[in-house]
Amino acid sequence: MKKEMLVNVSQPEECRIAILEDGQLEELYTERASQNNWVGNIYRGRIVNLEPSIQAAFVDFGVGRNGFLHISDVEAQYFRQAGYDPAEIATGNMPDVDDGSDDDQRKKGRQQRGGRPRFKPPIQEIFKRGDEVLVQVIKEGIGSKGPTLSTYISIPGRYLVLMPALGRVGVSRKIEDEHQRKQLRQIMLDLHPPEGLGFIVRTAGQDRTRKDLARDMAYLLRLWKVIVKRLGKTNGPGSIYEESDMIIRTIRDIFSEDIDTLIVDQVDSFNRAKEFLQLVMPKYVNRIQLYEGKEPLFYKYNLENEINRIHRRKVPLKGGGSIVIDSTEALVAIDVNSGNFRTDDSAEENAFQLNLSAAKEIARQLRLRDLGGVIVNDFIDMRKDSHRRKVERVLKESLRRDRARTKILRTSPFGLIEMTRQRIRPSLKRSVYDDCPCCQGRAVVKTAESMAIEVVRMMVMAAQSPKASRITVRVQDKVAAYLNNKKRREIMHLEEACRVTVQILGSEALYPEHIEIDCRDADGNEIALRFMDEPTSGK
Question: pTM of the entire structure?
Answer without folding.
Answer: 0.75
